[in-house]
Amino acid sequence: MDYVLPSEFTKKMVDAGESKIHMSTRDTLIRAYMAGAILALAAWFAVTITVNTGQPLVGAILFPVGFCILYLLGFDLLTGVFVLTPLALIDKRLGVTLKGVLRNWGLVFCGNFAGAFTVAVFMAIYVTYAFSTEPDAVGKAIGAIGVSRTLGYEQYGFAGMLTLFVRAMLCNWMVSTGVVGAMISDSVTGKVLAMWMPIMVFFYMVFEHSIVNMFLFPSGLLLGAHFTWIDYLLWNEIPTVLGNLVGGLSFTGLTLYATHLRTAEKKSLRVVFAADRHNVQRVESSLWPRRHRDRGDGQVRERS
User: Fold this and answer.
1) How many domains does the chain have?
2) 294, part of any domain
3) Stretch 240-264: mean pLDDT, rounded?
4) CA distance 101 to 238
5) Can you give the pLDDT at residue 176?
6) Is residue 303 part of a domain?
7) Which of 106, 45, 105, 115 is closest to 73 using CA atoms?
8) pTM of the model
9) Which residue segment(s) compose the domain that 238 sits in?
């Protein structure tokens, strides 16, 4: 499946980060908007499958279809640029600054939110016949998700916030691995397979993904779920964004960069070099003329 070596796809990660930082505002927003919209459709699709089948695993198995589509089309998620753009800064690429990284994050966040919210509005219209009826079973399930993953955390206070943050870290560990998966192969089949596996894991484990939540929670609010925008922002979206940043950059971006692009000298080579140097010294000493003192007359003679 045209596998790309780690040292090569890690360089691709840095190149991609540099390219995204230098991308125009227009293109950054368009790509982020479409990424948010497609991922929101996939989340809606997965929830529908789960409700209709009663099997969350089926929804998790099929959810990655949206992730694969958006990355094959070259669109960008916030969780992806959290990992790629800092590597270009660390690698000291020409023209890459902290301001440029933060600009990219801000634009992608806005684009993702706009795209996800657009689909949230479409979904709310779809499941209520344009707000003329009560939400159907899928709409009610989405509303329940919003309540359980905002007020559900809030009732535990600091423990709930810590749990939310850890779930967000774990999420982008998997999601950013999926982003890297798009670079692991030169074939479409290889890319899809490499992206599919970690995305399926994150969705089934109910980790917290900031862009998926940009769809789920506004959808619940549009459908009349019993939580507020403040609940959503303070007890989900903001901590989730921070957890996604820490998890993806720590467990995927920096680890791959450190070990595959900035590989340390192998210990075995240092040992071999030291051993060879010792052998050379021994050979030189054996070839050097040896001195000895004659025991009879006290004169020093050389013997080779």
Assistant:
1) 1
2) no
3) 96
4) 19
5) 98
6) no
7) 115
8) 0.87
9) 6-261
